[in-house]
Amino acid sequence: MRLRALLFVLLSGAPAAAGEIPTPVVITTEQTPGNPSPGPLTFTFDSPGTLPLTPGVPTQIGTVTLGRGPGWNGTQEDYWAYTFGSVSVKVTDSASGWFGTLTIPVVGYDYWMYRAWDGRILENQYLILGDAWGTNPASDSVVLKGWRYTLTAAPNDYRDTATFTLMTEPVHTPEPATLALGLIGAIPLGLRKMRRG
């Protein structure tokens, strides 16, 4: 049983289990205000530094909020308003020194509709996160030396605020040398079974 467990670890190529992993991060945001404006797009994020990430546990790093727009423009026509932006996180794997950048586009959207048959004015305002739709989260990930880092943006029910989290987890991909070593170790077991058969 011990030999089988050892072979499993060798073949899986999983990094050793770890507690909190100190991860240097640099968060940058950008936006291009629209004209007309859909409302103020506010980014609230941690300053550059080192985050203690626990494998498999998302860590909140900030939020994006879409505020109220200037209102109906007074015409009897439909109109749309957009503000385009993004959130990028540069992460560095502290063990290997490898780094990568995760990015999720953010769009503030406001749609006003004038109904000529009854004179009503309707509004539909919300955040658009990456290629996600509705209240589904958007994400981006990168693998750095056996560890996957994932940036996720999850909207609230009203879709006017999104919470951003960062998570890391080991990637179970065997390297060629490790796979060969595991196969060599399995040969005696196979020969023993053949002899017994």
Summarize the model shown:
The chain has helices at residues 2-12, 176-196, and strands spanning 21-32, 41-45, 49-53, 59-66, 79-92, 99-114, 121-129, 138-144, 147-155, 161-170.
Written description of the protein model:
The protein has helices at 2-12, 176-196, and strands spanning 21-32, 41-45, 49-53, 59-66, 79-92, 99-114, 121-129, 138-144, 147-155, 161-170. It has 197 residues and is of the alpha+beta class. It has one domain. Helix 1 (2-12) runs antiparallel to helix 2 (176-196). The longest helix is centred in the last third of the chain and has 21 residues, at 176-196. It is elongated, with a radius of gyration of 25 Å. The two termini are 20 Å apart. 18% of the residues are buried.
What are the SSEs and their pairings?
Blueprint: H1 2-12, E1 21-32, E2 41-45, E3 49-53, E4 59-66, E5 79-92, E6 99-114, E7 121-129, E8 138-144, E9 147-155, E10 161-170, H2 176-196
Number of helices: 2
Question: Into which percent range does the helicity of residues fall?
Answer: 10-25%
Taken in chain order, the helices and strands follow as: HEEEEEEEEEEH
Tell me the major beta sheet: 5 strands, antiparallel
Mean pLDDT: 83
Strand content: over 45%
For the biggest β-sheet, the strand order reads 3-1-5-6-7
Question: Which oligomeric state applies?
Answer: single chain
- Uncertain stretches: 1-17, 177-184, 189-196
Q: How many beta strands in the DSSP annotation? A: 10
> Which geometry do the CA atoms define?
elongated
Kindly report how far apart the N and C termini lie. Answer: 20 Å
State Rg.
25 Å
Structural class: alpha+beta
Tally of distinct domains:
1
